[in-house]
Specification:
It contains 27 helices and twelve strands. The chain is an alpha+beta fold. The protein has a four-stranded mixed β-sheet. A three-stranded antiparallel β-sheet has the order 4-7-5. The protein has a three-stranded antiparallel β-sheet with strand order 10-12-11. Helix 1 packs antiparallel against helix 2, helix 21 runs antiparallel to helix 22 and helix 23 packs across helix 24. DNA-dependent RNA polymerase catalyzes the transcription of DNA into RNA using the four ribonucleoside triphosphates as substrates. Specific core component of RNA polymerase III which synthesizes small RNAs, such as 5S rRNA and tRNAs.
Length: 525
């Protein structure tokens, strides 16, 4: 469930890029969940044509996924196939992370790949021919083979992937999976049923074997012949209409071109690794950060395939070989590597026959989340509240008021006042326990309910991010006339106003980037 300010932030991002109508459709889907076309028209009160155009834009920009289901009708009538639309909240929020994604591509693959990547960010989905046509318009990228090579490098790095099926059909659950025999091991494992949205995404996603595969026929033939001529890029409207069609084959029977998009999952994974390494460097040591970086590099492919919170097991020799390749790792020996692994929470095997290690990234992320919330408590409520909250976070259980007061060395009267304040603001959970005896006593027990608190913290972060975006827009609108002036006319008072705007914008955008790091820590990692 998306929080209140998460919905508002997503709607604002869509409004800034694609207009108010698209924002209204997006907000409707976020607030009400998966809907049919008729329901969207009714709830938004937009015309059918406007809603269809908005859905075309949002699908092409990877913010909405369509899927079909079988709807039961009256007895004796044939089942009806209905198309439904679900909003992709994560992809929508990723729009404010495009600069981070571009920096990763630029640092790893260079400016040639960055040009192709930028086009995919801008247009959402493109075929290889459209990518080539777009790059042929720039004088620096007139070589078709160079463009293909750059695109191939993006695929190999998993920065780009095939687009999902435009409108997959979801069979009724009983038809999808045959009933398992009673008493089998798989039948004993109780799994939570998947939501219809989860099933739609799984069905739409291309198989892993072809997800990053560029077919041979896309590398030759029509593209090469067209490459020597001048081409105009297809308009966005034409591409949206092409992508919105749910037919796999055109009316002539010719197979449609494969469409490609940015693989956000890979960038989130890399940013997750970067955040974990940085946290370990600061909280433990530089050497522990180097060892963690080496393990994550070695287990990259298995983590992508298995999608687990724990890295695959790696031998000590493989870890050491990777460590000495890192900056600052050349001077480390096996004993230092083992000491760093202990810092990272690994157990040293008693026998050296099979000395392998794996890292629990989930534990590192939880520690970072705890510290982030503790820092918020410190700024809002003071040092004594910070000590109390930190104690409850680390204990992970209900504690009585006197116990908290004695452990944190805070007066009981002040302790009770702080606990009530934190409870009232939603940071703590309280339970009252009555004890019967010669004298009836009432005890107050306190704990941190992370599940509900993390949701609250995330909503506050979405609120803060929205406010920063609005402030940036406000500052630019206030000085719109200054931004439109040529540089040579910015003198005197105009120059001061321009410098002030530039300084304010840098501060606000820097704050937004730092806030987004914390936001990803709680939502994406």
């Amino acid at each position: 469930m998306v929080s209140q300010y998460g919905i508002k932030l997503a709607a604002y991002l869509i409004s800034s890029s694609y207009g108010d109508f698209c924002s209204k459709v997006c907000e409707c889907l976020l607030s009400r969940g998966t809907l049919t076309l008729a329901q969207i028209i009714r709830f938004t009160e937009l015309s059918r044509e406007n809603v269809i155009n908005c859905l075309r834009v949002l699908i092409h920009q990877n913010c909405v996924q369509a899927f079909s289901i079988q709807q039961e009708v009256a007895f004796g009538e044939a089942p009806k196939i209905v198309t439904q639309y679900m909003v992709l909240f994560d992809n929508t929020i990723h729009k404010m992370r495009f600069p981070k994604f571009m920096q990763i591509v630029s640092e790893e693959l260079g400016k040639d790949c960055l040009g192709i990547f930028e086009g995919l960010l801008q247009h959402g989905r493109l075929s290889l021919n459209q990518i080539i046509d777009r790059n042929m318009q720039t004088p620096d990228n007139s070589d078709v083979h160079a463009v293909r090579e750059s695109f191939s490098r993006l695929l190999n790095a998993c920065f780009v992937e095939r687009c999902p099926a435009p409108e997959p059909f979801l069979a009724p659950p009983e038809e999808e999976t045959p009933a398992k025999k009673r008493g089998t091991k798989s039948a004993k494992i109780a799994e939570a049923p998947k939501t219809i949205e989860q099933r739609a995404l799984e069905t739409a996603t291309p198989m892993e074997s072809i997800r990053f595969l560029m077919e041979i026929d896309t590398l030759s033939g029509a593209s090469e012949e067209k490459g020597m001529e001048s081409h105009n890029i297809a308009t966005l409207e034409e591409k949206w209409k092409q992508d919105f069609s749910d037919a796999e084959l055109s009316s002539s029977g010719k197979k449609k071109e494969i469409l490609w998009r940015v693989n956000f999952e890979e960038f989130v994974r890399r940013l997750r690794h970067k955040a974990c390494i940085e946290y370990v460097r600061i909280r433990l040591s530089d050497q522990a950060g180097i060892v963690l970086s080496a393990i994550l590099e070695l287990t990259r492919s298995s983590e992508t395939r298995l999608k687990t919170d724990k890295s695959a097991s790696v031998s000590i020799n493989d870890i050491y070989d990777e460590v000495i390749k890192k900056d600052g790792g050349l001077g480390m020996d096996l004993e230092r590597v083992r000491a760093s692994l202990v810092q990272l929470g690994c157990q040293i095997p008693t026998t050296g026959i099979d000395e392998t290690y794996s890292i629990d990234l989930k534990n590192i992320i939880e520690l970072a989340q705890n510290e982030e919330v503790e820092s918020v408590v410190l700024k809002r409520y003071g040092r004594e509240a910070y000590r109390i909250f930190r104690l409850l976070t680390k204990s992970g259980r209900l504690l009585e008021t006197d116990k908290i007061s004695d452990t944190t060395f805070v007066e009981k009267k002040d302790t009770l006042k702080i606990l009530y304040k934190l409870w009232k603001d939603g940071y703590l959970h309280m339970e009252k326990v009555s004890v019967n005896g010669p004298k009836q006593a009432l005890f107050l027990l306190w704990e941190v309910n992370k599940e509900s608190l993390w949701v609250r913290v995330l909503d506050e972060m979405h609120h803060a991010a929205l406010n920063l975006r609005l402030r940036i827009t406000y500052e630019q609108d206030q000085e719109k006339e200054i931004l439109q002036l040529p540089t040579e006319k910015l003198v005197g008072e105009l120059e001061k106003r321009y410098k002030r705007l530039r300084k304010v914008r840098i501060i606000l955008e820097s704050s937004l980037m730092n806030l987004d790091d914390a936001l990803m820590l709680f939502h994406d990692f």
